[in-house]
Design brief:
single chain; 29% strand; 167 residues; alpha+beta
């Protein structure tokens, strides 16, 4: 009888331990797709009129444009094959043939500290195609091309302002 009582009490104790720690054992993991999206979106505020930033972005983008609407501030490129796209200078290896990406720009005009400003958001959507039948896998961006685009846009704005002053 004492063995059965010992077995039952130890079983109950083990059940309470597992139930008590159940909340901490089964915490939700972060959704990897949302983590990828958070890493792939980059923003910068330019202290320039909206039209000037829009024109500078068009000059800076070297890819074919699929969708653009200046009134809503939306610009999207067509899918670019990894081989034809941006390559960081330190990488000598060509990307896989199954990689493709597109850039999505959102423009918002406003005022910052009393000055006219335009916020530009760039999202680089990278997909890895495994085969013809499978869904594409999302891949996180390293953010380098987005920074380069922001730099180019900023330089185009500086050039436009200098030309305006020269006239």
């Amino acid at each position: 009888m004492s063995r059965i009582l010992l077995w039952i009490s130890s079983s109950v104790l083990i059940c309470f331990i597992f139930l008590g720690s159940g909340c901490s054992l089964f915490d939700r993991q972060q959704d990897p797709e949302n983590a990828i999206l958070k890493q792939s979106i980059h923003q910068k505020v330019f202290f320039a009129p909206y039209d000037t930033v829009w024109k500078a972005a068009h000059t800076s983008i070297k890819y074919p444009i699929a969708i653009e609407n200046q009134d809503t501030g939306y610009l999207e490129t067509e899918f670019i094959k990894g081989i034809d796209g941006f390559q960081p200078p330190e990488v000598a290896k060509t990307p896989s043939a199954g990689i493709r990406y597109k850039l999505v720009f959102n423009f918002a005009k406003g005022k910052t500290e009393g000055r006219e400003s335009t916020r530009v958001t760039v999202e680089k959507k990278i997909e890895r195609l495994r085969d013809f039948f499978s869904e594409a896998d999302n891949v996180a961006s390293d953010g380098l091309e987005e920074k380069v685009l922001f730099y180019r846009i900023e330089r185009e704005i500086v050039i436009a302002e200098a030309l305006k002053k020269a006239q």
